[in-house]
Design the sequence.
């Protein structure tokens, strides 16, 4: 598996270095040893709005080509249960053009963050199928695969994400498997990955530690905080073994969101993944 890093992992570095650019974090990632990088929402880089994500994407790709860094994926938000799902589809089609300019073979989008009143997640599944199909069929015409992540509490449990993927029933639509996010709904990461592995298009390696208060409160009332990969409670080795045994040999992006110093955490996280993935 190739090892990359999400631009999201550089959030603290970006906030502390106002002059930092997209190209700067690409160079940092390459210097640490990463094979690739995943970009998140080019229209908002460290809180700074971009007036032209498409042009930024072209510039990033030129930089990555120059330094030999792959672009693994483009990650964006979405809500197919918003009052205007057609607008969500239109926005995602624009994001696909950005992904194409980046040279990203995968676009990850959300499903929803909030259920409308009086419906369950099971009720929501058929409501999101057609717009997701429209997006992934459009992406396929550019040679880009689409996927959704176990993310956002509503569709974060493994059986819920699987239900959406099976209902959409498109070979071009799959799963961005986030190894840590399963903890947010108190699901065991290893068993969850066992369910997710057949549908995996891309993987996020993320670790959490348990705390008494603060951080993210799980559905069951526990509190977790991001940490350096390998220091927390996620059985990364077990998750990777299941993915490998299922035939997954794709890309993995480190996602770091802990309080530890950013760049040392990304170096330590890379060493951890390099050891686990060989």
Sequence:
């Amino acid at each position: 598996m190739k090892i990359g890093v999400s631009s999201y992992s550089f959030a603290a570095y970006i906030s502390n270095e106002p002059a930092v650019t997209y190209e700067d974090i690409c160079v940092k990632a390459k210097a640490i040893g990463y094979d690739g990088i995943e970009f998140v929402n080019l229209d908002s880089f460290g809180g700074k709005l971009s007036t032209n994500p498409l042009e930024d994407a072209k510039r990033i790709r030129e930089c990555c080509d120059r330094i030999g860094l792959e672009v693994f994926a483009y990650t964006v938000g979405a809500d197919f249960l918003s009052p205007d799902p057609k607008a969500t589809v239109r926005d995602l089609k624009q994001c696909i053009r950005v992904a194409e300019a980046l040279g990203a073979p995968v676009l990850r989008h959300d499903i929803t963050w909030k259920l409308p009143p009086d419906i369950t997640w099971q009720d929501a599944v058929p409501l999101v199928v057609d717009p997701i199909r429209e997006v992934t069929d459009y992406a396929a015409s550019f040679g880009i695969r689409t996927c959704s992540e176990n993310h956002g509490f509503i569709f974060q449990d493994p059986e819920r994400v699987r239900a959406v993927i099976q209902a959409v029933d498109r070979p071009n639509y799959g799963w961005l498997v986030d190894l840590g996010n399963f903890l947010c709904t108190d699901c065991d990461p290893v068993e969850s990955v066992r369910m997710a592995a057949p549908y995996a298009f891309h993987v996020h390696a993320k670790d959490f530690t348990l705390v008494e208060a603060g951080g993210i409160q799980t559905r069951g009332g526990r509190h977790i905080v991001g940490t350096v990969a390998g220091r927390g409670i996620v059985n990364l080795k077990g998750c990777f073994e299941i993915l490998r045994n299922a035939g997954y040999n794709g890309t993995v992006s480190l996602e770091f969101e802990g309080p530890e110093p950013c760049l040392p955490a990304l170096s330590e996280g890379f060493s951890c993944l390099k050891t686990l993935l060989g």
Notes: The radius of gyration is 18 Å. The CA atoms of residues 51 and 219 lie 37 Å apart.
